[in-house]
Amino acid sequence: MVMRRSLLGVLAFSILGATAATAAGPNVVMIIGDDQAWGDFGFMGHEVIQTPHLDRLASQSLVFTRGYVPSSLCRPSLATLATGLYPHQHKITCNDPPPRLARGEMLRQRAQQIAYIDRVPTLPRLLAGQGYLSLQTGKWWEGHYRRGGFTSGMTHGDPQRGGRHGDVGLKIGREGLQPVFDFIERAGGRPFFLWYAPFLPHEPHNPPQALLEKYTGKTDSIHVARYWAMCEWFDQTCGELLGHLDRKGLAENTLVVFVTDNGWIQQRDGPHYAPRSKRSPYDGGIRTPIMLRWPRHIEPRRDEQTPVISVDLAPTILAACGVEPTPEMPGVNLLDTEAPKQREAIFGEIFTHNAVDVHNPASSLMYRWCVEGRWKLIVPREPNVPDRATELFDLAADPHEQHDLSAQQPQQVEALRRHIDAWWPAD
Hints:
This protein is an alpha/beta fold.
């Protein structure tokens, strides 16, 4: 299979040696964490949580510490990973239909939400044209796995049997990885795409007892201890997956991509997330490390300056596999080190948990946001978030967004607002 994309474009990044992609293209493994804050990894500097397997992956990867997802809610974020489109483009913006609907109407609108995945190219469908097999495991909202173009999968998506956001697929990781190992065996040397999106460290926070005991003595909050233990449990499952690639001799020709779907800040006095994390426009909800490992093709290094975003992952994966991204994909190829530096800004959008109108993304919009260099602007949208003001943060000086500078920097606010409106006016 001849790579369609120019090698100059695909390989305009730092390469160890002169080896180009194999004729069949690399296998692709997407590891997608679920509800974990951007700093809650050893390689990101957490002083307590231990993530040795992901630390090792980071040491072998191109790591963008300023990675983002456009939305801090799992369903739109995951749909972006599958399609390379912003939520307002793929129209999967909210987890569920409007609340308080009769059951029949709720099921009808849920089916209408799911139907949007049928109308856009997805990574599994695009890669299938190059002979790739694909497997869905873990979190998946869009009905049966085949609707996403996967050739194999775990999720049936039938609401009559509990299908909503993964059903049987949510067992992966928590109950072992045998379905992944079986799929790799069945592939028999054909290139494959693996969607590993375990329900980890997501609630319920019920880690193995040994891990819970390990962290109980490190904090005076049992809720924090449980969450920390879940982070290490997730890491352990990643180690099982990466170790299997090593044992099968597949690691050298596999592109491993790591990202989380959204952030999480654990409450100290309760089992749920704290404000300014999940479902919020703050970095606690939308920032994530993004890692890319492809031995002999991607030079391991750490980029702590360049903002990148998960819409970049689809074009990056496609470029590595010799497939042209669709014209609608707004992301850049991260294998070209200059591409993310040449754009002015990255953007995102936060929506209500339940849709206002499943066919109109703007109806459910709460915030639009923009990161340009050190600056971040958050623009609220009424009526979904009344009485909220536009906020501006200097992320270099204030990474946890404690000091709103919008009153002191009106020109910066206006410049970023113009960029946001040019990106998506949401009218």
